[in-house]
Design goal:
Blueprint: E1 14-21, E2 27-34, H1 35-44, E3 48-51, E4 56-59, E5 68-75, E6 82-88, E7 107-110, E8 113-116, H2 124-127
Parallel strand pairs: 1-6
Antiparallel strand pairs: 1-2, 3-4, 5-6, 7-8
Length: 129
């Protein structure tokens, strides 16, 4: 059996993926992969996702230069979520979010509202042309 057959793909042929920074343990982002993206990620050791909005493979950093080297690929106990342990490249401090922040999880719930608790490290307009 192909190792990809162990993954429980959703009805659209996708699996949710969490990217976690190897050194800090920070959760950087959440994305989706199809079978081709996961196979390419495993082969190239660079993060390749499936962009639902573009309807195509998306190599992390293809526009921004903020790539992810993949050190470890894990599958959860239900075989329906993938965890990537990555090194984020392209900026210091690292930027994984399209908003120009270190992590996509930059908003914290506080007293009935969401508050941005991480700064914008680079203007998103300069990242995506």
């Amino acid at each position: 059996m192909d190792w990809l057959d162990s993954v429980k793909w959703d009805r659209d042929g996708l699996v949710p993926v969490i990217a976690q920074e190897l050194g800090s343990g920070d959760v950087l982002m959440f994305a989706w992969m199809n079978r081709e993206a996961l196979a390419a990620t495993a082969e190239q050791r660079q993060a390749v996702y499936w962009s639902r909005s573009r309807g195509r493979l998306w190599r992390k950093g293809e526009q921004s230069g903020h790539t992810q080297t993949v050190h470890d690929i894990r599958l959860d106990c239900d075989n329906d979520v993938v965890l990537l342990k990555v090194t984020q490249h392209g900026h210091d401090p690292t930027i994984a979010c399209h908003t120009g922040r270190h992590s996509c999880f930059y908003q914290r719930y506080d007293n009935g509202a969401w508050q941005a608790v991480e700064p914008v490290l680079e203007d998103p307009a300069s990242l995506y042309r």
